[in-house]
Design a protein that fits this description.
Order of helices and strands: HHHHHHHHHHEHHEEHEHEHH
Strand order of the largest sheet: 1-2-3-4-5
Shape: elongated
CATH architecture of the largest domain: Up-down Bundle
Helix content: 40-55%
Structural class: alpha+beta
Number of helices: 16
Distance between the termini: 52 Å
């Protein structure tokens, strides 16, 4: 049976945020505490499944209350942190450092590790962070939860755990459908458009994680061309002629999309681009030029501001014109991942 002190702490966030935990929230929090207990260590997998099942039932104010409790109830003990910090300040021994590191780590991190033991736990936690990020601006006291989740997901989605796979017309339809759903730079206009993007003079590569086998983490689209392209529109034309890859000398990276909102802020794009370049070099050694036509959101505003400043060495603004009709379309899909 839970102690009165526990119940008091459980309802503490309501006084600060106005979100009062309902019975579903209290049950979920109770299962999370049980998962962190000795009982949780012994039966972690089953208890983790039960806790995640209870969490998935939360929505609206109940979900807000759950995150409120997670922010308070599963944070480090300030007194323990202060004592450990004072001890380390007085004696910077390894023992005191280890003790400080132990008490500074929020219990939330261990809770998330144990939730990850459940079948489908990784996917559930990625989705949990997506829901958290959706309302984070309105609830800045959740920042600690986000920091803990980002810290763990950054480790779990380390480049060493990701596999690079080429996407083509033989890829399972489930994955192809998700490419059409997730594409954030140049919308895919149905199956005909997708098929053209997967022709012999096109390449599409994606990173996958073993815990999310049918979910691309991030994917990139490449066009093989003769010479560099000045515009992206011809590359997106589903009626454009197919070029013989053996005659191409240029690889144009024209779209890159991060598929999982819950992994926002975790860098994959740089690794993906470099590995795709190596793949293309091995497959098509006659390709000697690598370029991009990805949009650069905000570049026009930055350039106009720079042109208006009297900076020494900057080109005479009177000799520079910007064609209003040729500004790259703004796209969050490209700015997040390049």
């Amino acid at each position: 049976m839970r102690s009165p002190a526990f119940i008091k702490r459980l309802f503490a966030p309501a006084a600060k945020t106005g979100s009062r935990p309902d019975r579903h929230t209290r049950r979920t929090v109770g299962l999370c505490h049980a998962l962190l207990s000795e009982r949780g260590e012994a039966s972690g997998d089953g208890l983790a499944r039960e806790a995640l099942a209870a969490y998935r039932m939360l929505s609206g104010l109940a979900l807000t209350a759950f995150f409120d409790v997670l922010a308070v109830e599963f944070s480090p003990d300030p007194e323990a942190v202060g004592e450990a910090a004072d001890a380390y300040r007085q004696d910077a021994s390894q023992a005191n450092l280890i003790r400080l590191q132990r008490v500074v780590e929020p219990p939330r991190q261990e809770l998330l590790r144990r939730l990850n033991l459940a079948n489908g736990g990784t996917a559930a936690l990625v989705e949990m962070r997506r829901r958290l990020l959706r309302d984070l601006k309105a609830h800045p006291h959740w920042a600690g939860i986000d920091a803990d989740m980002a810290h763990l997901l950054r480790s779990w989605f380390n480049r060493g755990f990701l596999s690079l796979q080429r996407i083509d017309w033989r890829t399972p339809a489930l994955v192809l459908e998700k490419l059409m759903q997730y594409e954030a730079v140049h919308e895919i206009q149905g199956w005909r458009d997708l098929r053209r993007r997967l022709e012999s003079d096109r390449r599409c590569f994606a990173f996958f994680h073993p815990a999310l086998p049918d979910e691309p983490i991030i994917f990139i689209e490449v066009a093989l061309t003769k010479g560099m392209s000045e515009q992206v529109q011809p590359l997106l034309d589903p009626d454009s002629p197919v070029v013989d890859p053996s005659s191409a000398d240029t690889a144009v990276f024209y779209s890159i999309t991060n598929c999982q909102e819950g992994l926002r802020g975790i860098s994959f794009g740089n690794f993906l681009i470099k590995q795709v370049v190596e793949e293309l070099k091995a497959e098509l050694p006659h390709i000697t030029i690598y370029s991009t036509l990805s949009p650069v959101p905000g570049f026009r505003r930055w350039l106009e501001k720079r042109l208006a400043e009297p900076v020494a060495g900057l080109a005479d603004s009177g000799r520079v014109t910007l064609d209003q009709g040729n500004e790259p379309a703004s796209s969050e899909g490209s700015s997040r991942f390049m």
